[in-house]
Each structure stands twice: as structure tokens, then as C-alpha cells.
Write a structure and sequence with these properties.
- The protein is 71% helix and 1% strand.
- The chain has 451 residues and is mainly α.
- Helix 5 (128-148) packs across helix 6, helix 6 runs antiparallel to helix 14 and helix 13 runs antiparallel to helix 14 (387-414).
Length: 451
């Protein structure tokens, strides 16, 4: 009985408290009125948070790049690999903040280059979140180069090139398209939603030029000219890196909507296409490597996955999922043959960056011209997407990037040096370049032996 009375008292108190709290709440609800200014502020906040989260995911991709590149190269160069990835974010970020953003998004000069916002990128892009989102994209283009030129490139030479690509090369080509009305490629109807060409082909082209100029690693090719395998020290690490990159790609492509409010359907299409293309790219690479080599190569499956992601990046917002599947399958299959082709051509790319980013960046961009031909790209002049315009964009970006990258690399080679001494390369770059072993237990630093 006592328990019953106690329970009734508790219920009574709760009822009174509920009534007291409900009264003011109901009164507030009746008097509350959302103004247009409040609504606009809410929309801006939602969009800002979405782009900020996407930027964080893109930044996380550098962890994936570091893991992938370190895993596919030898243990004696691990510290050098991650050091270059780290400096790409740091130096590249500084260069884009100071100069790159202005060249990409500052007041237009002839549809070719921006002219305003130096050391003040907010004046060019409008807000800090947009600056950060574009900045991490710039660093992504640069880090593609580091993996392709790994294990024989001077650290200081790479640092200078990272500054060149993030401060000038990448910003100029993005101005052509992402500046919007006024950019000469955009006005022609060219469409690259998130950067198959503007990010990945740029990085892949610069990587190709750099690899040719720096030359192959010691021992990569025999006296007969045939390529020799130089296995990386950790396939698990490389595969983990590929998965982290897949994860970050949801920010890379998804965040390129640049808004969340009212864009839920668009975001869903982009993310679905990204997932389908990446997944089927991995499946295609597995099947092709299995048929051609007799065994499914985990590293090649990872490259196929990345190839599919690179390919769909240009058209993620204008293709449907069945078309995304085709892009993924083609890119995943082609990357296997591209890796073998570059190897035969003595283009020594330890991580397959040229195959994944250059070849599949071009393929994905051209597929937009096939599947989305006649669709408006949003230009005020009514320009529409076409295969010819997509091809013009690919060739223009490739040509500009190749020429400017060659000038930069040759200047570096002639001045501060591009390639390490052969002794350093044989013994490993970690100790010679940085004075620290990234993986001392694997390279036997304590005993004086090198892997």
C-alpha cells in the first residue's frame, strides 16, 4: 500500500511538472515565426557543415595515399614516402592559400586565369569553408606525383614541384572549368563534376612527365630491357590505403555538390554512382588480372577500385548507376593493361599512378561526352556537353600540364637536383634523406644491412 501511495505521489509530481513545462512551450510555439533571414541562415549552416565534413574526408584521403604508396614500395623508403605525403598537405596547402586560390577563382582574365585574391583566398571564394574544400583538392592532385616518382626522387626537388603544381599548374586548369561562366572550357560545354581531368589527369600527367625525366629505379630493367618486379613491402598496407581512399571519395565526389539543403537527391545519385563504379572497377581488375596472370592480384584489385572511382568522378552527377557501372568496368579492366603497357615502355611507376589517374581520368571524362551528350553543363550561354568538347578539355589540360610540368622538372633537375645518388637509392632514402628509418626492424638498420 505504501508503495502504491509513493507511486501515485511521483506520478502526480510528474504531471504537474509536465503541465508547467508544456504551457510556456505551447505559448512559444504559437508565437514562433521563422523569418526569411532565419531560414536563409539555417540553409547556409547546413550547406557549410556538409562541405566542411566533405573537406575533412578529402583530407583523410592523404592517409590513404600514404598507406598505398608506402605499401607498394620498399621498407627502406617508408619514411621518405610518408614525408612527401605530409609535405604535400603542408606546403601544397600553404601555396594554394597564398596563390593558387586566386589564380583559380579570382576575377577572370580572358577565361584563362584568375587575377585577384592573393594571400586573401576568401575574397575569391567567398568563405573559409570553400577555401578549405578547394585547398584539399589541390593537394590531392600533387600527391599523385609523389607515388609515381617514389624511391629515387630528391625530397627537396619534390617539395619544389609540389609548390609549382598547387600554386600554378592545378589552379590554372581548374579556372578554365570550375570558375564557371567566363572559364573558356566551361563556356564550351565541358563538364568535369569533381575532377577526373582537372584533378586526376593533371596529377597523372605530371607524374608521367616526372617519371620520364627522373628515369627508372636502379635494377628495374635488365640488360635485355625487360622489366623486373620490385615488390612493395606490405600489400595489406596498400590495400588498407585503397579502402581509406574509397571512404574519402564520398567527400571528394559527394561534397562537390557544394550544398546539402535541397540537394539530397543529387547527393544520393553521386554517392551511388561513386560506389557502383568503384566496386565494379575492383571486380573488373580482379577478373582481368586473374585471366592474364593466372592469379588475382590484391594490389591490382585495389588499383581497379581506384580506377573506377577516378573514372566516375567527372560524370557522377549526370550519369545513372548503370552507366556508372560501365565506366567502372571499363576503367577497372583497362588499368590492368595500362600498368603492363607503361612497364614495357620503361615508365617506372611503382604505384600505377599514371595508369589509374591519367588513363582512367581521360576515359571517365570522355564517357561523359558519350552518355550525357546534349545535356546542359550549366553555362549561361546554353552550351551542352558533347564528346568533342570533352576531348578538347582532356587534350588541353593534358597539354598544358605536360608542358608546365616538364619546365618545372627540368628546372629543378638543372638547379637543386631531381634524382638522388645511386648509392642513396640502393641503401634507401630514409637514412640518407631524413636520418631516420621508417621501418627499422624491416630494413635491419641496427645491423647495418639494408633491404
Amino acid at each position: 500500500m505504501r508503495k502504491l501511495r509513493t507511486s501515485l505521489k511521483v506520478l502526480g509530481i510528474l504531471a504537474v511538472l509536465t503541465a508547467l513545462s508544456a504551457g510556456p512551450a505551447l505559448a512559444q510555439e504559437e508565437s514562433f515565426e521563422l523569418t526569411q533571414a532565419d531560414f536563409d541562415a539555417l540553409v547556409a549552416a547546413i550547406d557549410t557543415v556538409w562541405v566542411a565534413v566533405a573537406a575533412a574526408l578529402v583530407l583523410l584521403m592523404h592517409l590513404g595515399f600514404g598507406m598505398l604508396e608506402a605499401g607498394l614500395t620498399r621498407a627502406k623508403n617508408a619514411a621518405n614516402i610518408v614525408g612527401k605525403n605530409l609535405v604535400t598537405v603542408a606546403m601544397g596547402g600553404a601555396a594554394y592559400w597564398a596563390v593558387g586560390a586566386a589564380l583559380a577563382y579570382g576575377s577572370d582574365a580572358g577565361g584563362f586565369i584568375g587575377t585577384q585574391g592573393f594571400f586573401d583566398p576568401i575574397s575569391a571564394l567567398g568563405d573559409g569553408t570553400s577555401v578549405v574544400f578547394q585547398l584539399v583538392f589541390a593537394a590531392t592532385a600533387a600527391t599523385i606525383v609523389s607515388g609515381a616518382m617514389a624511391e629515387r626522387t630528391e625530397f627537396k626537388g619534390y617539395v619544389v614541384f609540389a609548390l609549382a603544381i598547387t600554386a600554378f599548374i592545378y589552379p590554372v586548369v581548374t579556372h578554365w572549368q570550375w570558375y564557371g561562366d567566363g572559364g573558356w572550357l566551361f563556356d564550351k560545354g565541358f563538364h568535369d563534376f569533381a575532377g577526373s581531368t582537372l584533378v586526376h589527369l593533371v596529377g597523372g600527367t605530371a607524374a608521367l612527365v616526372g617519371v620520364i625525366i627522373v628515369g627508372p629505379r636502379v635494377g628495374k630493367y635488365g640488360k635485355d630491357g625487360k622489366p623486373r618486379a620490385i615488390p612493395g613491402h606490405s600489400i595489406p598496407l596498400a590495400v588498407f590505403g585503397a579502402i581509406v581512399l574509397f571512404f574519402g571519395w564520398f567527400g571528394f565526389n559527394g561534397g562537390s555538390t557544394l550544398a546539402a539543403f535541397g540537394a539530397d537527391a543529387d547527393i544520393g545519385v553521386v554517392l551511388l554512382n561513386t560506389t557502383v563504379a568503384g566496386s565494379l572497377g575492383g571486380v573488373a581488375a580482379m577478373i582481368v588480372s586473374w585471366l592474364t596472370a593466372g592469379k588475382p592480384d590484391p594490389a591490382m584489385i585495389g588499383n581497379g577500385l581506384l580506377a573506377g572511382l577516378v573514372g566516375i568522378t567527372a560524370g557522377a552527377n549526370v550519369l545513372d548507376d548503370s552507366e556508372a557501372a560501365i565506366v567502372g568496368i571499363v576503367c577497372g579492366a583497362v588499368v590492368v593493361f595500362a600498368v603492363a603497357m607503361f612497364d614495357r615502355l620503361k615508365v617506372d611507376d611503382p604505384v600505377g599512378a599514371t595508369s589509374v589517374h591519367l588513363v582512367c581520368g581521360a576515359i571517365g571524362t570522355l564517357f561523359v561526352g558519350i552518355f550525357a551528350s546534349g545535356v546542359s553543363n550549366g553555362a549561361a550561354n546554353g552550351a551542352t556537353i558533347s564528346f568533342v568538347t570533352q576531348l578538347i578539355g582532356v587534350l588541353a589540360v593534358f597539354g598544358f600540364t605536360a608542358v608546365t610540368s616538364a619546365i618545372a622538372f627540368l628546372a629543378i633537375k638543372a638547379t637543386i637536383g631531381l634524382r638522388v645518388p645511386e648509392e642513396w637509392e640502393i641503401e634507401g632514402l630514409d637514412m640518407h634523406e631524413h636520418g631516420v628509418a621508417g621501418l627499422p626492424d624491416l630494413v635491419g638498420v641496427s645491423s647495418g644491412s639494408m633491404n
